[in-house]
Design a protein that fits this description.
By secondary structure, this protein is mainly α. It has a single domain, classed as Hypothetical protein af1432, CATH 1.10.3210. It is built from 8 helices and no strands. Helix 2 packs across helix 6. The chain is globular and about 45 Å long. The chain starts with 5 loop residues before the first helix and ends in a 6-residue tail after the last helix. It binds fe (ii) ion (2 copies). The site of one fe (ii) ion (FE2) has 5 residues, from loops.
Length: 172
């Protein structure tokens, strides 16, 4: 399997995204979902490739920043269309990527570690939209612990992204 050029995918997705570059569902969000996902994957062994691709595709096909129920399925379809053109993954990885993008707004958890890690990577970036992550709504045990810690430490919406970088992973 060839190495994946994530920057090329990022560029492609940014070009095809109809939202403003400063959108709360735009490139900055993708970057933090990737950061969160890789952090969780380090802790729980989730598939890093799937997590990184999810970060780039899951909100790629949002048509607005408000209510867009079908953006998950559209993101999944974009990932499908670009498989083999922009990136290569195994069938198993692709199935997880497709499901994670498709279901990220409709499913709380699936019981499949890598998919649930994608969900939590996205949920841990909710403070940008005005919500503190709720431990009860996280899909993985490490996601729950981070959300719990955020509540205990009373981390503000504004500080949440930076705070995640300061977490002592050994304490989780
Ligand atoms: Fe989304
Ligand atoms: Fe998202």
């Amino acid at each position: 399997m060839k190495d994946i050029d994530y920057e090329k995918i990022r560029g492609f997705v940014a070009e095809h995204n109809v939202l403003e570059p400063t959108s709360i569902h735009g490139p900055e969000h993708w970057k933090y979902v990737e950061r969160n996902g890789l952090l969780l994957a380090k802790l729980n062994g989730a598939d890093e490739t799937v997590v990184r691709l999810f970060a780039l595709f899951h909100d790629a096909m949002r048509f607005n920043d408000f209510y867009d129920e079908e953006h998950g399925p559209r993101g999944a379809e974009l990932a499908k269309k670009m498989r083999g053109k922009l990136y290569e993954v195994s069938d198993n990885q692709f199935e997880m990527l497709y499901a994670a993008c498709h279901c990220h707004t409709t499913h709380s958890r699936t019981g499949i570690l890598t998919i649930d890690t994608c969900f939590d990577a996205d949920r841990l970036d909710l403070p940008r939209a005005g919500y503190i992550p709720n431990p009860k709504k996280m899909a993985t045990s490490h996601g729950t612990k981070i959300a719990d810690l955020g509540l205990k430490n009373k981390v503000s919406l504004k500080d949440y992204r930076k705070w995640i970088d300061t977490i002592d992973l050994n304490s989780l």
